């Protein structure tokens, strides 16, 4: 794949459309000959970043888009997911399964945790034009 | 029926089995919860969640499984899991669900000694 090529996809802020982004990223990773296990990691990380952007960023407003961009970076893939209206989400508390099983905490809240554990590098930033962007790098092998 | 997921309830011996095919997400979690409530109401104490290798489970789907696991502990039920892909076995382990749910490689091994 051309290392200068940047690929972009825009999806409406509707749950379910994150699967398009997953398949988009997985197709690029297959072209780069990622292992199947890394492709699965990538799919989950992209899915969770999109779900956050759809739900917490764009507040499920179908008229606002979530943008996904892919670019080759060394032997890895750089993936950026941005919303239009989100706020910084990096500093959410690390979820604790015991608290959730004992119903001391809500069962949800795993998205950021999964992203951090599945990709090699991740940054959460505010965009100057508004909204939040998640920048992830995933390498061919781990 | 939601076309993104299919849940079939069957029994083998005294074990209630939920065959779960498709996507376990915000949009479909209610269907799995309803199936669990149905077997629970019928008095099930042993429940096997039988996934398929092409399941897509996101963080909202994990939350549904956590809710079911929490309720099962309160009701004295035991839940076993089978059919997960290597990736989702890793995810279950990552979030800590494997502290509460035992994952088996096949339905037969899951039922053995259950």
Structure description:
Chain A has helices at residues 18-31, 36-57, 97-101, 111-118, and strands spanning 6-12, 65-73, 76-82, 121-126, 132-139. With 142 residues, chain A is of the alpha+beta class. Chain A has one domain (6-139): 2-Layer Sandwich (Heat Shock Protein 90), CATH 3.30.565.10. The radius of gyration of chain A is 15 Å and the shape is globular. The two termini of chain A are 20 Å apart. Chain B is of the alpha/beta class and 114 residues long. Chain B has one domain (5-111): STAS domain (Transcription Regulator spoIIAA, 2-Layer Sandwich). Chain B has helices at residues 29-41, 59-74, 86-95, 107-111, and strands at residues 5-12, 15-24, 46-51, 56-57, 78-82, 102-104. The longest helix of chain B has 16 residues, at 59-74. The A-B interface holds A 15-16, 18-19, 37, 40-41, 44, 47-48, 51, 95, 97-98, 100-103, 106-111, 113-114, 117 and B 4, 23, 25-27, 56, 58-60, 62-64, 66-67, 69-70, 73, 85-87, 91, 94-97, 99-100.
Number of helices of chain B: 4
Strand content of chain B: 25-35%
Envelope shape of chain B: globular
Distance between the termini of chain A: 20 Å
- Derived structural class of chain A: alpha+beta
Q: CATH class of chain A, anyone?
A: Alpha Beta
Helix content of chain B: 25-40%
User: What is the name of the CATH architecture of chain B?
Assistant: 2-Layer Sandwich
Identify the quaternary structure here. Answer: heterodimer
Low-confidence stretches of chain B: none
Would you spell out the secondary-structure blueprint of this structure?
The complex is a heterodimer of chains A (142) and B (114).
Chain A: E1 6-12, H1 18-31, H2 36-57, E2 65-73, E3 76-82, H3 97-101, H4 111-118, E4 121-126, E5 132-139
Antiparallel strand pairs in A: 1-2, 2-3, 3-5, 4-5
Helix pairs in contact in A: 1-2, 2-4
Chain B: E1 5-12, E2 15-24, H1 29-41, E3 46-51, E4 56-57, H2 59-74, E5 78-82, H3 86-95, E6 102-104, H4 107-111
Parallel strand pairs in B: 2-3, 2-4, 3-5, 5-6
Antiparallel strand pairs in B: 1-2
Helix pairs in contact in B: 1-2
């Amino acid at each position: 794949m051309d290392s200068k090529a940047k690929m972009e996809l825009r999806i409406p802020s509707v749950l379910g459309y994150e699967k398009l982004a997953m398949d988009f990223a997985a197709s690029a990773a297959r072209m780069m000959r990622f292992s199947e296990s890394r492709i699965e990691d990538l799919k989950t990380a992209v899915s969770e970043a999109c779900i956050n952007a759809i739900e917490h960023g764009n507040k499920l407003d179908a008229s606002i888009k979530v943008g996904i961009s892919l670019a080759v970076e060394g032997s890895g893939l750089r993936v950026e997911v941005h919303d239009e209206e989100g706020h910084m989400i990096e500093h959410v508390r690390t979820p604790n399964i015991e608290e959730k099983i004992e119903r001391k905490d809500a069962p949800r809240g795993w998205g950021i945790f999964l992203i951090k554990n599945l990709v090699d590098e991740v940054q959460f930033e505010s965009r100057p034009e508004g909204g939040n962007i998640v920048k992830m790098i995933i390498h061919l092998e781990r | 029926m939601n076309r993104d997921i299919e849940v079939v309830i069957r029994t083998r011996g005294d074990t209630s089995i939920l065959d779960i095919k498709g996507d376990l997400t915000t949009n479909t979690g209610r269907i799995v919860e309803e199936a669990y409530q149905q077997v629970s109401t019928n008095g099930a104490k042993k429940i096997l969640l039988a996934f398929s290798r092409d399941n897509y489970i996101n963080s909202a789907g994990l939350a549904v499984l956590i809710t079911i696991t929490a309720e099962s502990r309160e009701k004295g039920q035991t839940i076993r899991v089978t059919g997960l892909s290597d990736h989702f076995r890793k995810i279950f382990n990552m979030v800590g669900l494997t502290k509460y749910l035992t994952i088996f490689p096949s339905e037969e091994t899951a039922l053995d000694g259950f």
